[in-house]
Design a protein that fits this description.
By secondary structure, this protein is α/β, with parallel strands linked by helices. Helix content is about 40%, strand content about 30%. Strands 1-2-3 form a three-stranded antiparallel beta sheet. A three-stranded parallel beta sheet has the order 4-5-6. β5, α5 and β6 form a beta-alpha-beta unit.
Length: about 160
């Protein structure tokens, strides 16, 4: 793919996946991470490649992950304040059909706040999700059957 012009500057589209290989070169799915695509200018991309060539980083992905972690660490105080205020589940939160059936039997409506991954089981029907999930806020990734995601779309903040 050629460069993309935006705001009078050329950018290369760079897709990074878990193993650092180009997105179309690895047949294995990544279960513990989410793929993102970013646009980088020629100079930035070249600078990253220079650091990789000089062995400062193993590959482009290693550089970008390190840069992201450094920025997250730099802004940790803001994150801590928000986490304290909203009290989200940190990490991976998995809801099974059994979990939601137990909530329904107890007459509970769940208000979910997740910083990381929220995963709802493939055997969960939209009706059960609607009967048990009052609201959900996910900063990160939300995995669920398409029908459940569609049913909960108006409850996702």
């Amino acid at each position: 793919m050629g460069p993309i012009e935006r705001n009078g500057r050329n950018h290369h589209l760079l897709t990074i996946q878990e193993d650092g290989m180009p997105a179309n070169s690895s047949p294995r799915p990544t279960g513990d991470s989410e793929k993102i695509t970013i646009n980088l200018g020629f100079v930035d991309l070249g600078s990253i490649d220079l650091l990789v060539r000089e062995s400062a980083f193993a590959n482009r992905t290693d550089f970008i992950r390190t840069a992201i972690r450094n920025e997250l660490a730099r802004h940790e105080e803001i994150s801590r304040q928000v986490r304290t205020r909203e009290m989200p589940v940190l990490g991976i939160s998995q809801l099974s059909r059994k979990d939601l059936e137990m909530a329904r039997e107890a007459g509970e409506m769940l208000e979910l706040h997740v910083l990381g991954l929220l995963s709802i089981g493939n055997d969960v029907e939209p009706e059960l999700a609607l009967a048990t999930i009052k609201s959900l806020s996910v900063l990160g990734a939300f995995r669920a059957p398409a029908s459940v995601k569609s049913a909960l779309a108006d409850r996702l903040t």
